[in-house]
Amino acid sequence: MSAKAERAVEESQAGRALMPTSSLPWTRADTIFVGLQTLFITIVYARALRFDFVLDDFPLILQNPLVRANWKAIPRFFAEGYFERIFPQAPANDYRPLLSVWLLVNQKLWGFNPAGWHVAPIFLQAVVTVGVYLLARRLFLDRPWAALAAVVFALHPTHVETTAWVIGMNESLMAVPFLFALLAFLRSRDPASHAGIWLGASLFGYALALCAKEDAIVLPALVAAWAWFFGGAKAAEADSTLRRNVRSTLIACAPYMTLTALYVGVRFAVLGGLSHTAVPIPLATIVWTAPLALWSHLRLLLWPSGLSIFYDIPYVTGPLSSNFMLPAAALAALLLVLWLWAETSRQVSFLAVWLFVPILPLLDLRVLPEGEFVHDRYLYLSSIAFALLVAKALKQGAERARSTLEVARVPNAAAVVLAAVFGGLSFYYSGYWTNNLSLLVRGVAISPGNNAAVNNLANEFVKHGRYDEATALYDRVLDRAPNFWLANYNLGVCDYKMGRYDDALTHLSRAAASAPSEADIFVYAGLSLYRLDRLPEAESALERAITIEPAGAGYHLALGIILKARGERGRALAEFRQELTYHPEESAARQAIAEIESQAAQSVKGAPAP
User: Which 3 state secondary structure label does DSSP give 607?
Assistant: First the structure.
C-alpha cells in the first residue's frame, strides 16, 4: 500500500473513531473546570458593575422606546428593523428582534441601574465559555485540554468590548444559541442518538442566533466544513469518494440552508433588502482594503495589544500601497502555516475554516460606518476557533515532546500562564470602559487620525461644558474632512450652546448640505434663528425637521415655542399637544399648554361684558 493510501486509511479511521466516542460523560472534573472558568471571568470583570453606560448604550438602551415597551409589544419587534425607531434615517441593515427582547427583559429586571445591566454581559460571557468547553471536550476527548481552550476564550482581551460594554453583549447573546445549534448538530451526528430531535433543536438554536445578530448566518458554512472534514459514520470509510463527500455535505447543510432562505425572505420583507449602502465605497477600494481588514482583525487575536474602541485604519486605494502589500504578505504566511498544519489534522482544517469565515462578511465595507470596519467585537465567533487552535497547538507540541514532559501536566500549567497573561490584560483594558470620557480619551490616544474617535471625544467635552476643547477637536476633524456632516453638525450645536448663533448657522448649513435628511440639523438651525429673532426662518426650519421626522423628540415643542413668540397661540397650542401625542412624558409641553390656557382664561375674564 502506498504512503498516500496509508494516510487516507489512517485519517478515515480517525474520523470514524471520533464520532462514536465524541460525547464524554459529565463528571465532577467538568463541574470544577466550569466553576473555575466562571470564577476567572467574575474576578476579571467584577469591577464593571461600577461602570457607567457608555457610547451606544445611551441611544440603544436609555433612549430606546423598545426598551420601555410592555410585554405585549414583543411581536412587533419581529416586524421592524432594530434601528427603525431610534435612527429612522439610517440605512436599514439590522434585524435583531431577540436583542430587543433581551434588552426589554433586562429593563424589567434592573430598571436603568447600570450595575444590573453590567451583570448581563458577564453572565453571557460565562455561558458562552461553557459552550466552548463542551465543544472542546468533543473535539479533543480530553477535559484538561478542553478547559485550556475555554480559559483562552474566557479571558482573551478582545472580549473586553463585549463584556465590559453593556450593548456589546449583542455578540455573546448571539453566540449562546449559535454554539447550542452547533453542539446539537454534532449530537445529531452521533450513532444511537435521537437525530431528528437534536437536528430540530439545532435549527431552533440557529433561528434564535439569526434573530440576535446577522453574523450567525455563517453557521451553515461551519456545518458544511464539519460534514466535509469528518463526514458521518458511513462516509468515513477508507474508500469514500469525492462524490460521496459532496453528497454528505449537501445533505448536512440542506436544513440550515432552507432556514437561511426563510430568514433572508423575512429580512427582505422587514428591511426592504438584504443590506443597504451606508458608505458609497468603490468596489476596487473594497478589494484593496480587504487584506488590511482581515489582517487587522487576526492580529488582534494573535497579539492583543493596544486595544481600543476605535482604530486608525484607512481605506486602501491601490495594490502598490504598503497597507495592501504588507497585510497581504502576512495573510499569505498565516494561510501557509495553517495549510501545512492542517495536513496533520482534520480538526485544524475545520478550525481554520471557522477562524476566517465569520470575518468574511465584514469585507462588505459599504454597510459599515465610515472608517469603522475593525472592532474587537467583530472577532467574537472567530475567537472560539482561535482558542481551540491554541489548545490544539499546545496539545500536539506536548505529545511530541512527551519524552521530556509529563503531558498530563502541560494543559494545567498552560492554563495558569494564559489565565494570568490574558486575565491581566483584560483587567487592564476593561478599566478604560469606566465611563465615556475615559474610553474616548483612550480612543483618541490610540487612534488620533480616526475622525469618529475625535468627534465623539469632542461631544463628551461638550457634555462636560468644556466647549473650547470641544471646538478645537471639531476643527481638527474638519481640517481633515471639511464635508464630514456630523462634525459640522456637532460644532454647530456646540456654538449654539455657547451662544454663538451666527457661527452655529454657518456650520449647520454645511451639515445640511451634506446630510439634508438629518432632521436634528434643522432643529438646531431653527433654534439658532429663534435666538437671533429671525422667527419666520426659524419656523420654516422646524417645519422642515418635522417633515423629515414627524415624531422627533422635542420637534413640535420647539415649533410651538417659535409660534408662541410670533403671537400665534392657537397654532402653538396645537404643536404642544402634538408633542404630547408622540411623547407623553414631555413636561415642558404640558407646562406650555397650561400657560396658554391660563392666559386664555384670564383674557376671557378681563373681557368687557356684552
Answer: coil
Contact 314, 403 (CB under 8 A): no
Gap between the Cα atoms of 222 and 554, Å rounded: 48
Q: Which one, of 110, 121, 135, lies nearest residue 186 by Cα?
A: 135
The rounded Cα 171 to chain-centroid distance in angstroms is 6
Q: H-type helices in 213-282, by residue range?
A: 219-230, 242-271
What is the separation, in whole angstroms, between the first and last Cα of the chain?
120
Is the C-alpha dihedral spanning 150, 156, 158, 161 positive or negative?
positive
Alpha-carbon distance of 66 to 85, in angstroms, equals 8
Q: Cα(452)–Cα(475) distance, rounded to whole angstroms?
A: 13
Q: Which carries the bigger pLDDT value, residue 411 or residue 224? A: 224
What residue ranges do the domains of the chain occupy?
27-433, 448-606
Residue 296 to residue 376: CA distance in whole angstroms: 10
**Alpha-carbon torsion angle 51, 53, 54, 57, nearest 10:** 150
Spell out the alpha helix ranges (H) of 49-194: 57, 74-77, 97-110, 114-140, 143-155, 160-163, 170-188
69 close to 451: Cβ distance less than 8 angstroms: no
**Mean pLDDT across 18-26:** 60
Closest CA to 381 of 417, 340, 353: 353
pLDDT at 36 over 50: yes
pLDDT in tens, 256-279: 999 999 999 999 999 988 888 888
Q: Which long-range contacts (CB under 8 A, 24 or more apart) does 547-550 make?
A: 548/89, 548/517, 548/518, 548/519, 548/522, 549/88, 549/89, 549/519, 550/582
Q: Which CATH class is domain 448-606?
A: mainly alpha
Residue carrying C-alpha cell 470602559:
433
Q: Rounded to two decimals, what is the model's pTM?
A: 0.89
pLDDT (tens digit, 9 = 90+) per residue, 548-567?
999 888 999 999 999 999 99
Helices (H), 532-586: 535-548, 555-565, 569-582
Residue that the C-alpha cell 451666527 belongs to: 502
Q: What angle do CA 109, 68, 119 make, to 5 degrees?
A: 30
| Alpha carbon separation from 87 to 54, 102, 276, 410, 519 (Å, rounded) | 18, 20, 14, 51, 11
1, 8 in Cβ contact below 8 A? no
pLDDT tens digits, residue range 84-116? Answer: 888 877 888 899 999 999 999 999 999 999 999
> Whose CA is closest to 417, among 128, 130, 148?
148
Q: Which of 347, 349, 373 is nearest to 361 (CA)?
A: 373
CA separation for the pair 518, 512 (Å, rounded): 7
CA atoms within 13 Å, Cβ hemisphere of 381: 32
C-alpha cell read off for 255: 436544513
Question: Could you give the CA distance from residue 406 to residue 397 in angstroms, rounded to a whole number?
Answer: 12
